[in-house]
Amino acid sequence: MKSPSPSDFQQWLFFDISSTIPWIFLLPLTFLVIATSCESKLTKMQPKAGLALYGQILEALSLPYVLTGAAIGWVIAVNSPDNPSWVGGLIIGWSIPGGMALASGYLITRHTGYYRLSTPLSRRAACFIIIGLWGSGLAIWGGWGGRGDMRQWLVGYDPIFLLFTPLSFLMAFLLHRLSPRPVSVVLADLSILNVIIYAVVALTYWLWGATSNRLDFIGVVTLGAVGIILGCSIYHAAYIWSLTEARAGTIEVRTKNWHFLEIFSLFFFFIFAPESISGALNRQQTQEKINQLLIEVRAHSNKTVIGIGRMSIEQIHNETGAICIDLTNQGLHAATGLTVEFTYELDDKYLETHCRKENDTAPIYIPSSTGAIERLEVGETQNACSTYSMLYVKNDKPFTFLPTCSPRNLLTGVGYRVSYSQDPIARSDYQGFVASSYIQQLDER
Q1: What domain range includes position 384?
Q2: Of 60, 157, 201, 309, which sees the most CB atoms within 10 A?
Q3: Is the pTM of this model over 0.85?
Q4: Are residues 155 and 220 located together in one domain of the fold?
């Protein structure tokens, strides 16, 4: 899976079928259970009343599902051995459909107002929604996030922290005995308190230096994710239970949503803070200065210096091609045994639309290849070339291009790494990645 870019729209970046389960199944079922339990005849509900009730459910319950899905996504990411560095953006992308549902619910309730149920929701129906529907969502997402091993939810931190949740319930019970309040309001306040405490504990370890090893990092992210899941579960139960009370609507939904978003945003951007533009430019300039210093050091020490030049590509047959890169000896000694390892990134979108038949959907890849130059004299430039071929992942059989396929456009880019006998270690200034737009196609038609 290659890193997406704004110019290369990827549907999977904003849509994943498992992330839409609440809005396809669980929330519509929640609406049906509430409507059939509280209204004598669902078919006689006025369209405006039905829309107001559904909008109210979307506004109140979309955010718990969005944040829970994001938290489970964190656990999947940090436990994956090959997780991409841009996984934070992936999680935000998958939250967009749920965020749109939340925005729709907000707009609906702003126009229609909150719907007053004819009769309070029965406690049996409330338990079914809380345990059956929300519980099934957690089981599906949680089992998928843990990949069948629920122990991953306890990795990297001391499980004693989880005692805060039952202790918070005990404290709320004692306060309720002293000064009674609606149960739903107490639960809603507990949900915010739980998210705050778990996030603060996780961030404390993060700022203490928990990024020094992978296990600590996993523990910080998992503890924060568990806190969000527990808080959202309590809030979901609080809202549903508020519908069983005679004074429905006692929970300040918009205020609670705002608090949840504040805490989530703080934790998310502490953990997955993207690099700023100025930081990226400074890092690039620093690397260029380091590369120039390496060249000067080698030149002054009478060692060979290799200059990297133009990269070109040529299609040989409908299933193979050739990739070449210019190497120049800029040092004082001849270089021998030069090798260049090429790695390839496919443009999946172009592959589907220009290079393969409609009924061919099998995964394709290009294995890495190596080009070689036996000897490169001082001041001399030669091409290091290698042939490549596209193969099916399943059986490594050759894949044949369609005539409409351009080998340069088929690739998003080519990585290279140069080494030679006098300096066999691949230095940072002897490796890089060339985007396809900078590769010259020699047989362009």
Answers
A1: 302-441
A2: 60
A3: no
A4: yes
